Each structure stands twice: as C-alpha cells, then as structure tokens.
Amino acid sequence: MVSAIHAAVAGLGLALLPRILIERELLGGQLMRVGNYSAINAEKTYFLYPEQKREWTPLVTFATWLDAEIALYRNQRDRADDERPIAGIA
User: Fold this and answer.
1) pLDDT, tens only, 56-82
2) Buried b / exposed e across 10-33, counting CB within 10 Å, b at 16+?
3) How far apart are CA 17 and CA 10, in angstroms?
4) How far apart are CA 80 and CA 76, in angstroms?
C-alpha cells in the first residue's frame, strides 16, 4: 500500500486506500478525496507476521504504534458520529 500512496502523491493515478493510512497526506493537501465514496468494513484489521518474529523489537514497536493509531482513529470517528445531529431532531 505504501507504493500506492507514493504513486498517488506523485500524480501517477488514483488509489483506493483506508483513510487511516493517508490522513497526513489528506491534511497536507498532497492527496484529495475523489467523490464521496467509502467502503463498509467490519472494523477488522489483521496484522500478520511469522511467529518466530513475535518478540522482534521493530515488530513489537510497530504493532504497538499501529494499535494506538487505530484506537485514536476510532475514538475520533466515534466522537464525530456522536456530535452529528439526528435527521429530523433539532
């Protein structure tokens, strides 16, 4: 996916990517959303690696960071959903 992000930033085409991976590029204006498309997901993320790497420091560091980023994203999304008015209720 990283190469898809780099290709899109370089202007080589479009990419369909999870928003969490491109927040920085969206905020910095390097990428923009085309249309109002989104995919429904079951909020499942699978981070896979060989078992023998389970305690490898770089992997543990990345997994810890990824967990924190996903939690932050979900909290921000849920707060935004809570703040939206319900249609027909003022």
Assistant:
1) 898 889 888 888 888 888 888 888 767
2) eeeeebeeeeeebeebeeeeebee
3) 15
4) 6
Q: Give CA separation, 22 vs 3, 19, 49, 56, 64, in Å.
A: 12, 5, 23, 26, 19
Is residue 47 within 8 A of residue 60, CB to CB? The reply is: no
Tens of pLDDT, residue by residue over 22-43, are: 889 989 989 887 666 666 565 6
Q: Rounded to two decimals, what is the model's pTM?
A: 0.46
CA–CA–CA angle 33, 35, 39 (5° rounding): 85
